[in-house]
Design brief:
- The chain has 275 residues and is mostly beta strands.
- The chain has two domains: 110 residues, Sandwich (lipopolysaccharide transport protein A fold); 144 residues, lipopolysaccharide transport protein A fold (Sandwich), CATH 2.60.450.
- The protein contains one helix and 20 strands.
- The two termini are 42 Å apart.
Length: 275
């Protein structure tokens, strides 16, 4: 989930050589450009290459961009097109943008932009984020690379592979109208508006669901569901104002006027308890 952090490295890659301004706003084009940068110790720090670089005033347009950052923050970035404003450092990447971090995490979209002043990475298009056991899709994204936080605005679907034992895994799928807010420092994801969580045939619905993960975000530690909670398993349904699930103890606690509806068979075999 941390692939978006490495966009700042790409900005440094493209701007570290300093401004290249076209005289009198005359457009200039370079074919087959290749730039490299090194640390003070002589180690390779970055490289960027592409088919063309068009310079028009303060704006540089790049095609078929391939960039790499080395050292502590390794990444690879590819895109069919990139635009850089040399004055304010604002950058746009367009068409088949793929950002891959050294741990294999990927961020993919057809449009990514970085605002230097606010230090935010954003997209108005559909985004796809994938790591070892975690994937997320949705439309619209805003992230603060340094703070390891991100928000997907709408039509969110997240899938988490959770280990049941050493031989079996389960998939937890959570969808919502959005937004979904991810905080990697707190190992927390918050889903809002029409949230539905599904696992092994059990469905849990709520206005808001907060999921807390263990280190590495590969296992769920706790799930807190608030507002119009509904739990469906087969023909049985449970309602509550709040539900808290402890994954370690596999314990679900309901509070706030819980109601249990059981299917007992027959044409009218519905029993309501605890209302």
């Amino acid at each position: 989930m941390n692939a978006h952090r490495f966009l700042i490295g790409l900005i440094a890659v493209l701007l570290s050589a300093g401004p290249v301004l076209a005289e009198d706003n005359v457009e200039q084009q370079f074919q087959g450009f290749n730039l490299q940068g090194y640390t003070d110790e002589g180690d390779k720090a970055w490289d960027v290459e592409g088919d063309t670089a068009d310079i028009n005033g303060t704006e540089i347009t790049l095609t078929n961009v391939v960039a790499n950052s080395y050292g502590d923050r390794q990444m690879n970035v590819t895109a069919e097109m990139g635009k850089v404003d040399q004055v304010n450092g604002h950058m746009q990447l367009e068409k088949d943008v793929v950002i891959t971090s050294d741990d294999g995490s990927k961020l993919m979209s057809d449009f990514i932009e970085w605002d230097k002043e606010s230090d935010t990475v954003s997209s108005s298009e559909e985004v796809y984020i994938r790591s070892d056991a975690f994937s997320a899709t949705g439309t619209g994204m805003k992230a603060r690379p340094g703070l390891k936080s991100a928000q997907i605005d709408k039509d969110v679907t997240v899938r988490v592979e959770t280990e049941e034992d050493t031989e079996r895994t389960k998939q937890l799928t959570v969808s919502s109208d959005g937004p979904m807010i991810l905080d990697q420092l707190l190992l927390k994801a918050r889903f809002e508006v029409n949230v539905i969580a599904e696992q092994d045939g059990q469905i849990l619905k709520a206005d808001v669901i907060e999921i807390y993960f263990k280190e590495g975000m590969k296992e769920v530690e706790e799930m807190i569901c608030v507002g119009n909670v509904e739990i469906i398993q087969g023909e049985n349904k449970t309602y509550a104002d709040k539900a808290t699930y402890d994954a370690e103890e596999q314990k679900l606690v309901l509070s706030g006027r819980p109601k249990l509806i059981l299917e007992t068979g027959g044409d009218s075999g519905i029993t309501s308890l605890g209302n």
